[in-house]
Amino acid sequence: MEKAHKPKKVFIQGPISPDFVAKSIASHQSKTGIGAHAIFLGQIRADQKEGGPVTGIDYTAYEEMAEQAFYDIREAAFAKFELTCMHIYHSLGLVPTGEISLFVFVSSPHRRAAFEASEYIVEEIKANVPIFGKELIGEAGQHVWKENK
């Protein structure tokens, strides 16, 4: 029986900074059994909508349910792929265009598992985690609820 992994804090208030991403990568240099890392960064696009361009996304979530869903995805990924470690971070609150709102960092002894696990995790997050994004549009403060695609 696989051992369960300790739940980890996923949510970060506001954008995920490049410095945070860099420090996460650097902290794995001492883990010499790792042969591959796969990193997914979800960035806010300035899509053109009626009323102007998207200027940011304001994220909310059913946090307790979302944390459980993240934990379940994490456990399923560890069971399905040969992984050494995994980190998932998602923004809450306002994330302006050009900034990062999702950071998935997967480490494995071999590249194939890292690639496949990363894609699996991102698709599972999009399909199953109760996070909601309100796209802010133009200067007038209009908004529309974002669809997960």
From TrEMBL:
Domain of life: Bacteria
Organism taxonomic ancestry: Bacteria, Pseudomonadati, Bacteroidota, Cytophagia, Cytophagales
Signal peptide residue numbers: none
Keyword field: Molybdenum cofactor biosynthesis
Name of the top EC class for this enzyme: transferase
Organism: Dyadobacter endophyticus
Protein name, UniProt field: Molybdopterin synthase catalytic subunit
Catalytic activity: 2 [molybdopterin-synthase sulfur-carrier protein]-C-terminal-Gly-aminoethanethioate + cyclic pyranopterin phosphate + H2O = molybdopterin + 2 [molybdopterin-synthase sulfur-carrier protein]-C-terminal Gly-Gly + 2 H(+)
EC number: 2.8.1.12
InterPro entries for this protein: MoaE_sf, Mopterin_biosynth_MoaE
Family of this protein: Belongs to the MoaE family.
